[in-house]
Amino acid sequence: MDSGPMDLRNRYRGKTVVITGASGYIASALVERLAGVAAKVIRVSRGALPPLPGCTDLAGDVAESETWRRVLPGADSVFHLAAQTSFYKSAEDPDADFRANVIPMRHLLETCRKEGFKPFIIFSGSTTEAGLPLTTPIDESHPDAPITVYDLHKLLSEKLLEGYARQGYARGTTLRLSNVYGPGPKSSSSDRGILNAMIARALRGDRLTVYGSGEPVRDYLYIDDMAAAFLAAGCGAEALNGRHFVMGSGRGMSLRETFRLVAARVQARTGRTVEVASVPEPAGLSPIESRRFVADASAFRKATGWAPAVSLEAGIDLAIDFAVAAQGVA
């Protein structure tokens, strides 16, 4: 399968696509790529969205079954991206997190079962569902041992989707996301979008801080590559149905190394020196923050032909250029 961006978009011509959490980071990237290509793009959001040609907007709560009954008729694909994404908010209010991250999937699947709808559902999971990795790189064979309420709920939704798919009531797959970065709207959770936040700080001339030695390792995936993966997933229904996939670039880098790279790229772009400093870990830091994670996305690559195309260095430069243009930073 050719995973080129235009080829992937062309596969959605004549299709009806539903995108939940439409104002969010990855959802916005998908809307941008599918509006005007798919026959109909239905953006689902709890609030009003700026009008966009090629899109039909529905203000609704995906935790209510009525919302799904309104959007699913005629849908070919559902990119279910609406979520509460903060580890810390989930711990503070598990009930609210359950309503945000589990109830919508239950209503989506039950509406499919009761009404006979069979869109292909692409769900955004998290690589942290595996908990603290035993080894790296991580693939789909790694045991799941979630240590946060957020990841417990994400895993539950993922398993619901897989269970309904096995019974033939629904079709779908889960892409477990690693650290996605690049141009787009700011994350709604302060503990997400860290690389984008560090780029913004560096451009302001603020120092970049890492906790302790900064040894935790992350795998970063540029937004264009992540959007291409979602589009590829929606095209590969038969090979992906009832499965989950670990997503990432396959390249790990410690937080200290990453922040130093950001500082160096900002200095090259602006001439401004940016300090990278160590600070003590704050009280209440979740153990999940200390993980060392690198993805092995070979199963998804084999099933779809997708592969990341943007290196971390090139992606950071692109994100810097976007921020400079958007904010007028010198």
TL;DR of this structure?
The chain is α/β, with parallel strands linked by helices and 330 residues long. Helices cover 41% and strands 18% of the residues. The chain is built from 13 helices and 12 strands.
Could you please describe the fold and organization of this structure?
This protein has 330 residues and is of the alpha/beta class. It has a domain at 5-181 and 221-249 and 296-308: 3-Layer(aba) Sandwich (Rossmann fold). Helices cover 41% and strands 18% of the residues. It contains 13 helices and 12 strands. It has helices spanning 5-10, 25-34, 65-71, 87-92, 94-101, 103-115, 149-166, 194-204, 223-235, 237-240, 255-270, 298-304, 312-327, and strands at 16-20, 40-45, 55-59, 77-80, 120-126, 171-177, 179-181, 208-211, 217-222, 243-246, 252-254, 276-279. The strands form 3 sheets. Strands 3-2-1-4-5-6-10 form a 7-stranded parallel beta sheet, with helices on both faces. Strand 1 (16-20), helix 2 and strand 2 form a beta-alpha-beta unit. Helix 5 (94-101) runs parallel beside helix 7 (149-166) and helix 8 packs parallel to helix 11 (255-270). The radius of gyration is 19 Å and the shape is globular. The model has no long low-confidence stretch (mean pLDDT 94).
